[in-house]
Recover the amino acids of this structure.
């Protein structure tokens, strides 16, 4: 190589070096970094081997149960001692002691000392034979008839014709019986009610009464009073005591325990009749009422049906509930012998009927009670489901008494007896139906006459602790 060539090569090397140095400076690096080459990437296997996590040793096996219990017992924190109860705070002294010089300082009334409530009286456990009237009673012979079940009376034949017209066929089901439950509280209409029921029945032989009577000595007896009303042997009520169709249990009116208990005890006189019917002791009946009621129940097709409503009313007359004419011997003698409702007429298929339209809670004194409201509605073409039950009239299979009797623990309960029975009956599978026939009517005390004396009105002192106020009457 010539000298000029060597000079040229050297110059080019110097220029190249300068260019490289300038380029590294422009990229923001240092002189050493410009010439430092990146090492080649390691193989994938080497990377995976280096990133493999270390092997974790398995945990030691758990200690046996005994050891765990020892550990848990040792780790249980100590129980802290409960703090002592705070000292009792005494109230301020009475105002009169704080201000002895001030007169007429009002003091809050002392709270009455509530003692142990009086023991509940025991219900009678044995109602005896249930004979409506003892044979030695002088009235017994007047209403007795040894051939009561064999004699066909003109009134009975008329009742059957009327019942056949209403139900649309000549079917009376003489093999089925009806038990009538009545709780009577000093009601002079009770004997008249029994008399009308037999006289207007299509089959008097199937009707039986269970009466729980609460009377004073001078009051009209529900069974003995028949002697003043009926003439035997022409009347259908004659001989029914002898045949066991009128059963009764009597207590003095001062020993009454209220309407719900009275209804419960009247149902204890039930003797396995096919049907049970309950109403008040001041009731009148449609002719052939027993056949009409049975037909109505059968058309429902529900063995756990209860046909129920408040019946239509009839007004008090001169000889019914004449409470203004009362002397020491009770209601007037003329009122005992004359029944103004004996020949009363009413249509069992009217255009409108009484119906329970709602129930509400009402405040009566210190008692919160349930009260039904009634109104008139168009008579339905068939028995209709309703949510309410009325004590004024209800008709069901006799098994209802065994399944759901009136409550035996509701002492002096008047407003609420219907709701109590309805709730328990419905929860036992019973349904309530409004009737499409009127078979009874109820004496309305508001139509011109005064109310009978309520329960516990003028009651002796021994009854006062049981109930501080009258709770209503039962008839």
């Amino acid at each position: 190589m010539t000298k000029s060539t060597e000079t040229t090569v050297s110059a080019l090397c110097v220029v190249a070096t300068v260019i490289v140095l300038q380029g590294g400076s422009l990229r923001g690096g240092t002189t050493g970094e410009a010439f430092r080459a990146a090492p080649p990437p390691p193989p994938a296997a080497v990377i995976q081997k280096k990133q493999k996590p270390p092997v974790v040793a398995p945990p030691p096996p758990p200690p046996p149960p005994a050891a765990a219990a020892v550990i848990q017992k040792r780790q249980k924190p100590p129980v802290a001692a409960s703090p002592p109860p705070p000292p009792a705070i005494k109230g301020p002294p009475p105002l009169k002691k704080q201000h002895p010089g001030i007169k007429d300082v009002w003091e809050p009334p002392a709270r009455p000392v509530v003692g142990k409530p009086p023991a509940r009286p025991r219900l009678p456990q044995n109602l005896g034979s249930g004979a409506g009237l003892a044979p030695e009673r002088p009235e017994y012979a007047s209403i007795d008839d040894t051939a009561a079940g064999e004699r066909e009376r003109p009134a009975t034949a008329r009742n059957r014709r009327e019942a056949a017209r209403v139900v649309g066929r000549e079917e009376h089901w003489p093999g089925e019986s009806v038990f009538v439950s009545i709780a009577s509280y000093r009601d002079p209409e009770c004997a008249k009610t029994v008399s009308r029921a037999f006289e207007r029945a299509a089959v008097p032989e199937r009707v039986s009464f269970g009466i729980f009577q609460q009377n004073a000595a001078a009051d009209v007896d529900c069974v003995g009073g028949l002697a003043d009303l009926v003439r035997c042997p022409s009347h259908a009520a004659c001989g029914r005591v002898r045949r066991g169709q009128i059963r009764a249990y009597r207590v003095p009116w001062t020993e009454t325990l209220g309407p719900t208990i009275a209804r419960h005890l009247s149902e204890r006189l039930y003797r396995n009749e096919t049907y049970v019917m309950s109403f008040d002791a001041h009731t009148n009946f449609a002719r052939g009422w027993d056949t009409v009621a049975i037909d109505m129940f059968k058309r429902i097709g529900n063995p756990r049906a209860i046909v129920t409503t408040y019946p239509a009313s009839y007004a008090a007359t001169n000889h019914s509930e004449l409470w203004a004419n009362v002397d020491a011997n009770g209601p007037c003698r003329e009122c005992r012998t004359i029944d103004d409702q004996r020949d009363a007429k009413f249509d069992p298929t009217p255009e409108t009927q009484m119906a329970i339209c709602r129930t509400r809670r009402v405040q009566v004194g210190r008692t919160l009670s349930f009260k039904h409201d009634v109104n008139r509605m168009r008579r339905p073409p068939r028995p209709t489901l309703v949510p309410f039950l009325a004590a004024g009239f209800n008709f069901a299979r006799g098994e209802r008494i065994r399944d759901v009797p009136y409550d035996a623990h509701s002492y002096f309960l008047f407003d609420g007896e219907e709701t109590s029975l309805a709730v328990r009956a419905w929860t036992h599978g019973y349904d309530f139906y409004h009737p499409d026939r009127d078979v009874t009517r109820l004496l309305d005390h508001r139509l011109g006459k005064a109310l009978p004396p309520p329960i516990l009105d003028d009651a002796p002192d021994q009854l006062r602790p049981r109930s501080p106020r009258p709770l209503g009457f039962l008839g």
